[in-house]
């Protein structure tokens, strides 16, 4: 029996309705004949996962269909690869294929050849449209316009109308009710050193709704902390994303006016947003940032430390991994779990390999962690009277000086690269130019130091005396980073635990 297939993605003024497609197909095949009719409304042709289309393919495999009639080729598929596989499927089951508009009939060799040529151009048209949409998206991002979609937490969407009254730009503006929560979130993570889960629990206990209106979790908070749409741009932000492999569309000297940033680019499917930003683009936005660069970068440092620490096998189970070693052979101690994972204990990783001759023993992870924690608190008691200075508050002048310093360093690097690549630079000119740039570099450094010494002090970061109070709120990675500052190594065997400190503070 002959079958008719029709598809319409959305209702538009100039689109052909499903009913019209079916009527045209019946005229092609003969109006007085019975047909199996399949139709999908509201589905794109970019893939084959359409309900009625899959039913039609099942009927083909059951040999219920001898010929398929469609209005146009792109009703079947817009993918050349998918189309080729469909034609092969139809051919293997002896199913002919007819398009009413292109006048193709696969029962003839010429029709088959023309069909393949037409699909190549259909694929080319689709890819051209995709490239045009992508280029328009990127060009809007470079101007600092909002790229569309729901406004990020802490902002609402706004429109700026130009003086000529004919042009306008989409941008963001601060949402006062949400920005208070946003500031609190960054402060809790970067200043108070709370873990992501601890922050989520506190926000949920205070019944503060998340951006989607549901409960908070670590992933939602991490995405917000990673998003540069909140940061007040500075040369340090430029350098951070440059080290990450970003392509930055603005010059470093533009990163001084507290504008926020847009981070955009294609990422792999299922990849976390903002986690791997290599080959992404960073552009200055029109709207003002809400978070100081120093606090934003502190949060990035902590988040990066979590990734590095959590990537090692077993690291998330104890903050002592990497510090704790076997007292007999010196091998790293690893964490094992009892059946069901209820009890965790340390064992020498060489023991199972037969490389450690020491006595077999197991040490409960909570017991060893508690012992080390108490010794650590006791060790840092002499630091309780020390006050860690805060960051300077005259940020604008310092940003400009940092931007000048970074630009000079880039000039020096480019000059050296040109010389190494055999550029037309005489030794005399190179030496003279490098000396001049080094002099400017030192002047810029002195200017930064002078500004910092003259500035006021803002809210102080966590102090050593606060560590016992904050410890339970820190995550495993944060505890590990703090322990590394003070502890050189830990040795553990059946005789007990030995701690070797980085500094003698007692």
Report on this structure.
With 506 residues, the chain is an alpha/beta fold. The protein has 4 domains: 2-138, Resolvase, N-terminal catalytic domain (Rossmann fold), CATH 3.40.50.1390; 170-310, Hect, E3 ligase catalytic domain fold; 315-386 and 464-501, no CATH class; 395-454. 43% of the residues lie in helices and 16% in strands. It has a 5-stranded mixed beta sheet with strand order 2-1-3-4-5, sandwiched between helices. The protein has a 3-stranded mixed beta sheet with strand order 8-10-9, sandwiched between helices. Helix 10 (293-310) packs across helix 15 (476-486). The longest helix has 34 residues, at 109-142. The protein is extended and about 100 Å long. Residues 310-314 have low confidence and may be disordered.
Instruction: Please report the first level of CATH classification, the CATH class of the largest domain.
Output: Alpha Beta
Number of domains: 4
Q: What fold name stands as the CATH topology of the largest domain?
A: Hect, E3 ligase catalytic domain fold
Structural class: alpha/beta
Coarse shape = extended
Q: Averaging pLDDT over every residue, what do you get?
A: 79
Strand content: 15-25%
Largest sheet: 5 strands, mixed
Proportion of helical residues: 40-55%
Number of strands: 16
Number of helices: 15
| Alpha carbon gyration radius | 32 Å
List low-pLDDT spans: 310-314
CATH architecture of the largest domain: Alpha-Beta Complex
Distance N terminus to C terminus? 92 Å
């Amino acid at each position: 029996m002959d079958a008719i297939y029709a598809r319409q993605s959305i209702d538009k003024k100039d689109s052909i309705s499903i009913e019209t497609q079916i009527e045209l197909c019946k005229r092609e095949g003969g109006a007085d004949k019975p047909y199996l009719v399949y139709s999908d409304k509201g589905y794109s042709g970019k893939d084959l996962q359409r309900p009625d289309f899959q039913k039609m393919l099942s009927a083909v495999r059951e040999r219920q269909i001898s010929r398929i009639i469609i209005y146009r080729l792109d009703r079947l598929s817009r993918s050349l690869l998918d189309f080729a596989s469909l034609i092969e499927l139809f051919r293997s089951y002896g199913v002919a294929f007819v398009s009413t508009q292109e006048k193709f009939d696969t029962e003839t060799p010429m029709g088959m050849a023309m069909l393949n040529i037409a699909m190549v151009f259909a694929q080319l048209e689709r890819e051209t449209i995709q490239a045009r949409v992508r280029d328009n998206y990127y060009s809007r991002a470079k101007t600092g316009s909002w790229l569309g979609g729901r406004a990020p937490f802490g902002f609402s969407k706004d429109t700026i109308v130009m003086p000529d009254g004919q042009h306008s730009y989409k941008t963001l503006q601060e949402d006062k009710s949400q920005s208070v929560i946003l500031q609190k979130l960054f402060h809790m993570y970067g200043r108070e050193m709370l873990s992501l889960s601890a922050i989520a629990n506190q926000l949920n206990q205070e019944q503060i709704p998340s951006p989607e209106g549901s409960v908070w979790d670590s992933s939602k908070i991490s995405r917000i902390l990673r998003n540069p749409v909140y940061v007040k741009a500075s040369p340090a932000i430029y350098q951070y994303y440059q080290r990450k492999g970003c392509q930055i569309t603005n010059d470093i000297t533009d990163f001084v006016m507290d504008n926020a940033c847009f981070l955009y680019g294609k990422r792999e499917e299922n990849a976390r947003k903002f986690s791997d930003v290599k080959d992404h683009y960073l552009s200055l936005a029109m709207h003002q940032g809400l978070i100081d660069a120093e606090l934003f970068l502190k949060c990035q440092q902590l988040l990066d430390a979590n990734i590095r620490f959590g990537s090692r096998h077993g690291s998330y189970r104890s903050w002592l991994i990497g510090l704790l070693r076997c007292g007999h052979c010196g091998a790293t101690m690893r964490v094992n779990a009892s059946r069901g994972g209820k009890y965790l204990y340390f064992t020498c990783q060489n023991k199972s390999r037969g490389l450690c001759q020491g006595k077999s023993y197991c040490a409960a992870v909570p017991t060893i962690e508690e012992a080390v924690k108490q010794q650590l608190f006791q060790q840092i008691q002499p630091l309780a009277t020390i006050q860690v200075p805060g960051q300077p508050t005259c940020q604008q002048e310092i940003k400009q000086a940092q931007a000048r310093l970074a630009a000079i360093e880039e000039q020096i690097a480019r000059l050296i690269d040109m010389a190494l690549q055999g550029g037309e630079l005489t030794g005399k000119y190179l030496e003279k130019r490098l000396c001049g740039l080094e002099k400017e570099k030192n002047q810029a450094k002195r200017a930064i130091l002078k500004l910092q010494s003259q500035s006021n002090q803002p809210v102080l970061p966590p102090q050593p005396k606060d560590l016992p109070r904050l410890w339970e709120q820190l995550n495993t990675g944060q505890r590990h980073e703090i322990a590394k500052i003070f502890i050189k190594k830990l040795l553990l065997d059946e005789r007990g635990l030995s701690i070797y400190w980085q500094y003698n503070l007692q």
